[in-house]
Amino acid sequence: xxxxGIETSCDDTSAAVVEDGxxxxxxxxxxxxKEHAPFGGIVPEIAARKHVESIGIIVEDALAEAGVSYExxxxxxxxxRHGLLRSIVVGAAAAKSLAYSLDIPLIGVHHIEGHIYSNxxxxxxxxxxxxxxxxxxxxxTLLLLVHAINRYELIGRTLDDAAGEVFDKIAKFLDLGFxxxxxxxxxxxxGNPKAFDFxxxxxxxxxxxxxxxxxxxxxxxxxxxxxxxGAEISIPDVAASFQQAVxxxxxxxxxxxxxxxxxxxxxxxxxxxxxxxxxxxxxxxxQSEGLSALYPRIALCTDNGAMIAGLAYYKLQEGVQSDLRLxxxxxxxxxxxxxxxx
Length: 342
Ligand code: KG4
Ligand code: ZN
What we know:
- It is built from 11 helices and 10 strands.
- The longest helix is centred in the C-terminal third of the chain and has 27 residues, at about 235-260.
- The strands form 2 sheets. A 5-stranded mixed sheet has the order 3-2-1-4-5, with helices on both faces. Strands 8-7-6-9-10 form a 5-stranded mixed sheet, with helices on both faces.
- The protein has helices at about 35, 45-65, 85-100, 110-125, 165-175, 180-190, 215-230, 235-260, 275-290, 300, 305-315, and strands at about 1-5, 10-20, 25-30, 75-80, 105-110, 130-135, 140-150, 150-155, 265-270, 290-295.
- It is α/β, with parallel strands linked by helices.
């Protein structure tokens, strides 16, 4: 079964063709970074306009790369939940018109469910259920106990900024560019993670929640202090020390949650899952605690259509389908459980 997946929830226009939920025939991702970089963050109006401009071409590219035509498609999947509303609307409208004109099923999916699914498409049976999933992105930081595809239990979340958001804000403060995550990741590799002793918020709190805004403030205050004192600041050292603080909290609390719930597999997904320091720390600490930590290839960490098409295959098997009244929501609970999260 061939499903075309469309993902436009934020600033990437993506379309992918996935066969039987697992084989990625194409996964085209068109980044808008150049358009948003001058503003140091995503401008929702620009994002929506760029999606309108690109979506048709990206879909055609995805079909061409997969070597299939519109008539070969069995269903259309689209992100209809969670993200920038005007951006989601563009993908949803495109998906509806395709499903209608081809007379094939339409499946609206939740963006975060797509991220969670990215590890299944990457690892197949190696991803055991139940497992703990850390979803870390520009818009969310969640810890979930995943019982099965479609059955999630929220066990922790950020109480303020998302992890990726803090990477982006620190990079913006330091005038490093946008998005900040990959830039800081690269700089961190050249710096000393012990140069600054930044706080690890909520590291020892009696729950699985996170908080990153205090860390952001501490980093900014430290740089301002050093600047006032006329000190020469090593940006790689700041990047490495900041990244280490984020990594310590994310890894420690995720491992603790796995131990609390008695599961031996951890999956990490979302844009921040691309972070080299985070991946290394999960591998090393996971190994020493007897846990296996899985994450997808980089192209499946950040927003992509393949995770949407793959997930939709399973939804369709379960009889979950949308119709042409499918609506779009910027904020929506995840799965059947009516949980709120960021
Ligand atoms: O999943 P994603 O593409 O979009 C959202 O759903 O938010 O994630 C984007 C976020 C941005 O905040 C970006 O800075 C961060 O992921 N990111 C990284 C890295 N690559 C992307 N953060 C840390 N290290 C990276 N290598
Ligand atoms: Zn995302």
